Amino acid sequence: MSTEIAGYTRLVDALECLGTREMFGVMGVGNMHMIGEFTKRGGRYVATRHEAGAVNMADGQARTTGGLGVCTVIQGPGLTNAITALTTAVRSSSPVLVITSELPLGRRPAGQAIEQEPLVTATGAAYVRVTDADPGAALIEAAELALRERRPVVVSVPGAVQRRTWAPVPLAAPAVRLERVPAAETDVALLAELFAKAAHPVVVAGRGAQWSGAVEAVAALAERTGALLGTTALLKDRFRGHPADIGVVGGFSHPLARDLLGTADLVVALGASLSVWTIARGGLFPSATLVQCDHDADAIGGQARPDHGIVADVHALVEALLPRLPEPGDAPARWAAEGAFERLAARQPDDGVTDGSDADQLDPRIAAMVLDKALPADRVLTVDGGHYIGFPTEFIAVPDPRQYQFTLTFGAIGQALGVAIGAAVTRPGPAHVCVIGDGGLATSIADLDTVVREAVPLLIVVFNDMAYGAEIHHLRHEGLPDEIARFTGPDLVEVAAGFGCPARRATTAAELAEAVRGWSGDAPLLIDVPIDGLLLAPWYAEVLDPPRQVTKRTG
């Protein structure tokens, strides 16, 4: 008869079964035995100074691997510290396991005891409390839930359960089978009719198209119908190089894309949320018929209400639609006849950009273009939140959309540094670069300790306007003094040096290019780039002055 083992050992058995090689976290009494067992077996435990960083890093792990991210925090304050990062992971559809503990509440909760489940479920994450079940089996089930529903799961294993002994029953990794919603005949017929009538159709792919394995079919759909082909920001550069590619559709669209999209008469969003950002608050394609397809009925019309909502698996819908369409060249679309594809092929990134740099600060568009040219071609780009974020998104290309990490899904700054660390630790090889504002860096500065201690090969580029840039534009728009959103320090090069992180300042394009090209790629480096924070980004101009709704054309 096998000797029973402790609950925390069963948790590590499950982590091994899941193939977990790295785990991020903040240690305490509620998880130290599990962490110790994990490291004894050769697992890499990456300690963070703040729980938000641990969840962000697990989020980055999930994004870059396409699988699970794993982290651990203690109960009570450990979990409450992680809530913003947890919500960001939820809004990013990241399957993250957060292993924690909990304490009895009693009639008058004291110390670290708190009602944890309502706190977690309010973020959209799932909460699993392990009381009488084998902790290892429970963790496997939680992993299956996280992968199937593409959201974080917080697994609470109280200390008493971790100390209790359990039989070492063999564990099996979860086999996640996604149910594919078939396409209804009426929906296929409707789309075929809409494409037949459209002169200026646009197909927009989101991550749902990628998850369903439909991206090649989506490209074929654009080719068959003569449509322009774009993506949401989260699928950035997926069709880069395709003749019909217009890039990111939404507030981050380049000027030519905006011009073309303004005349669209049909926009079909496939596995895309049709968020206010994707439709640029209603001003990007005001006269188009909007169609949204998603396998999840709750995603239809979540933010912008389409004219037609289709609940179906993207791949199933497109595969059913293609045989119903005219052969290439027979479609009525006029984009090709009007020279749209030639205009896209001739477009240069700096079209319409007048360099606004001066002796003390860089135009953020120029800074982003310098990064694009100076970085190795194989790069992972992680972008934080703030007014400036559209510039690196527009001007810095990535070889694969999974190598672009957008972290503003909850509207919270300070998430990118942790996400970038998780990606760099989990996926060595590409050049990992994090573009973050001075405000975002200040809110996540503790993560620099992890960068240095773990020798994470990460390039941290700070777009530093010495302010909360978005708030500056809001204050000026409202006619209010902007001094309350400005800061005079600290010196970020000295701050980084205090953590032991090599750092330098670049105030010109030449200095920035030299700094990037001088980065070894196998050690951390922070570059402080003073930028012109008063240059108003087009996407943020739409935040300040949302476009008025335009009556759609008829006939």
TrEMBL record:
SUPFAM superfamilies on file: DHS-like NAD/FAD-binding domain, Thiamin diphosphate-binding fold (THDP-binding)
Cofactor(s), by name: thiamine diphosphate
Keyword Cytoplasm in record: no
Keywords from the named record: Thiamine pyrophosphate
Domain Thiamine pyrophosphate enzyme central as annotated: residue spans: 190-321
All residue ranges annotated as the Thiamine pyrophosphate enzyme TPP-binding domain in the record: 388-529
InterPro entries for this protein: DHS-like_NAD/FAD-binding_dom, THDP-binding, Thiamin_PyroP_enz_cen_dom, Thiamin_PyroP_enz_TPP-bd_dom, TPP-bd_CS, TPP_enz, TPP_enzyme_TPP-bd
UniProt-listed PANTHER family: ACETOLACTATE SYNTHASE CATALYTIC SUBUNIT, MITOCHONDRIAL, THIAMINE PYROPHOSPHATE ENZYMES
Name of the protein this chain belongs to: Thiamine pyrophosphate-binding protein
Gene3D superfamilies xref list: 3.40.50.970, TPP-binding domain
Signal peptide: none
Similarity comment: family membership: Belongs to the TPP enzyme family.
Positions of the Thiamine pyrophosphate enzyme N-terminal TPP-binding domain: 8-109
Coiled-coil annotated spans: none
